[in-house]
Amino acid sequence: MKQRLLFLMSLFVLMTVGGAAFAAAPAEDKVLSPRQESIVVISAFAAQGDLESLKTALADGLNNGLTVNEEKELLVQLYAYAGFPRSLNGLNTLMTVLEERKARGITDTMGPDADPVDPNRDRHAIGDANQTKLVGHPVKGNVYEFCPTISDFLKEHLFGDIFERTVLMWNERELATVSMLAGIGNVNAQLASHMNVAMHNGVTGDQLKAMAKLLGQRVGKAAGDNAMTVAKRVLGE
């Protein structure tokens, strides 16, 4: 009887410790922080122009610690990939979200503004340096030889203006870019390229796969499946 009691007590201890260990184990889905998850979902819905879903995602992002200026920055960056209409509609949606939250007594954190820049700076030189640092090497290609103007626009504006701005870190901007491209669809060459750039700037392969999985759960199965296929190809899996 005594031995049986000792056995039951030992079993109880093992179950308790095991249960605690199981509860403490990180979930696979938490490879991305709540903040990063919000960046992914906001970026994808904004790129698709799904404003009702974007409205929810923006509110969730504010609840997950994104500041108003960080969400504005995501929607400003969006226009370089999805155009001014998507960007402007996203910003108008954010204004609506903030007005509704204010009416409910919610005070959202504005966060720091972007640092000022010298209007007389050499934007082409800055953009060229930023692009090279982001990618890890100078960017060349037949398309840039065929149309040098697009290379100038990329350097001077996307990398010289947008990626020169503060508020968001480069790895966050690349996570947003990958999510925007995944949301748009039919741009797998650029999606694969930016996944590589994202990893060069600190985004891990596991985070890319977690992003694809999250897109499939929140944004759409087709977008998620495609992003996962591209991510695995980039990772050599």
TrEMBL record:
<dbReference type="Pfam" id="PF02627">
    <property type="entry name" value="CMD"/>
</dbReference>
<keyword id="KW-0732">Signal</keyword>
<dbReference type="InterPro" id="IPR029032">
    <property type="entry name" value="AhpD-like"/>
</dbReference>
<feature type="domain" description="Carboxymuconolactone decarboxylase-like">
    <location>
        <begin position="23"/>
        <end position="91"/>
    </location>
</feature>
<feature type="signal peptide">
    <location>
        <begin position="1"/>
        <end position="23"/>
    </location>
</feature>
<dbReference type="GO" id="GO:0051920">
    <property type="term" value="F:peroxiredoxin activity"/>
</dbReference>
<feature type="domain" description="Carboxymuconolactone decarboxylase-like">
    <location>
        <begin position="150"/>
        <end position="232"/>
    </location>
</feature>
<protein>
    <submittedName>
        <fullName>Carboxymuconolactone decarboxylase family protein</fullName>
    </submittedName>
</protein>
<dbReference type="InterPro" id="IPR003779">
    <property type="entry name" value="CMD-like"/>
</dbReference>
<dbReference type="InterPro" id="IPR052512">
    <property type="entry name" value="4CMD/NDH-1_regulator"/>
</dbReference>
